[in-house]
Amino acid sequence: MYFGDKWLDLNEPHVMGVVNVTPDSFSDGGSLFSSQSLSIDAAMGRARTMVDEGASFLDIGGESTRPGANPVSVQQELDRVIPVIEAIRASLDVVVSIDTSTPEVISAAAKAGAGLINDVRALGREGALQAAAKTQLPICLMHMQGDPKTMQDNPVYNCVVDDIGSYFDQRVDQCSVAGITKDRIIIDPGFGFGKTLGHNLQLLNHLDVLSNKGLPVLVGMSRKSMIGNVLNRPVDERLNGGIAVSVMAYERGARIVRVHDVGPNVDALRMAHAVIMSDIT
Ligand code: PT1
Questions:
Q1: Whole-number Å distance between alpha carbons of 73 and 33
Q2: How far apart are CA 76 and CA 135, in angstroms?
Q3: What's the pLDDT at 32?
Q4: Does the C-beta of 258 come closer than 6 Å to ligand 1?
Q5: Is 8 inside any structural domain?
Q6: Residue 3 falls within a domain, yes or no?
Q7: 224 is known as an active-site residue
Q8: How far is CA 251 from the centre of its chain?
Q9: 195 has catalytic annotation
């Protein structure tokens, strides 16, 4: 699949490194900020390390969407993400993914050189489908039940795997009407977005159902509460559990894994890939 000017073979596993440019990130608590203002140098240092460790994508997000997070203004989001996208494009060989739901940010990020649009609201905001269609870029559609503020208040599904499968069938049709063809769509079940622990574990165990739709699958479980709740560990002690679920997702067909700890995940997935490919002569 082409991500702007860069082609990546999605038969192989790829790691997407998270670069949070929000002061209220769940995993690093805004470590790229000093006195509320974003340090481009700090963000670039983080970005360069992730590329050296083998990241194929860097995901740049200016709005925190973790459970309970507050909304941000369009201007704030633009001010946070655009300078970072430009700096990465100027010096690193990596696909820049823009983690946004805002039409203005989709357009500006594409102009600044982003190669993938990653939207946790699956282009559900007014004008987002049209803005994304215009960029001609691939889109990652993520499933979320409800909105970040309230999504963890008693989420309910008939069958979480089938419900999310049907959701993507519908959403892909709506994208097609807006001019976004299937060959540009990646799907993501949205771990932790309006799902209980049981829902998240079942989704991972049956991820093959989603992979079998013929669309590439991306997953994000790194440091999330689904790991914390099983292991009873705080956010900075979830790497080992994270590696386990990354490999399991890859075995069940996921091809892009969105993580904070790039190096360990790259090693784990390269190893898993070597094993899975061993019968092919
Ligand atoms: C994700 C994702 C994302 N996750 C994509 N984009 C976040 N495509 C941001 C918790 O339960 O999975 N896929 N962008 C981060 N969101 C969360 C959600 C962080 C839940 C933490 C939790 O701890």
A1: 18
A2: 22
A3: 79
A4: yes
A5: no
A6: no
A7: yes
A8: 18
A9: no
Per-residue pLDDT at 172: 98
pLDDT average per 10 residues of sequence, the chain (281 residues): 98 97 78 74 94 98 88 93 97 98 98 98 98 98 94 94 98 98 98 98 98 98 98 98 98 98 98 95 70
Query: Is residue 7 a part of any domain in this protein?
Result: no
Out of 80, 224, 238, 255, pick the active-site residue: 224
Q: Which domain CATH number covers 169?
A: 3.20.20.20
Q: Which amino acid makes up residue 63?
A: E
The answer to whether position 2 is within a domain reads no
Q: Give, for ligand 1, the residue of 20, 21, 95, 118 to mutate: max count of ligand atoms closer than 8 Å to Cβ.
A: 118
Give me the domain span that covers residue 134: 13-277
Q: What is the pLDDT of residue 13?
A: 98
Ligand 1 neighbour 225 (Cβ under 6 A)? yes
Q: Give the HSE-up count for residue 74: Cα atoms under 13 Å, Cβ half-sphere.
A: 9
Q: Is 38 helix (H, G, I), strand (E, B) or coil?
A: strand
pTM listed for this prediction: 0.96
Ligand 1 atom having least distance to the Cα of 200:
11
Contacts of 264 (CB under 8 A, 6+ apart): 239, 243
Ligand 1 close to Cβ of residue 188 (< 6 A)? yes
Give nearest CA residue, ligand 1 atom 15: 66
Strand duo 37-38 + 57-61: pairing: unpaired
**How many separate domains does the chain show?**
1
**Residue from 195, 223, 238, 258 carrying the catalytic annotation:** 258
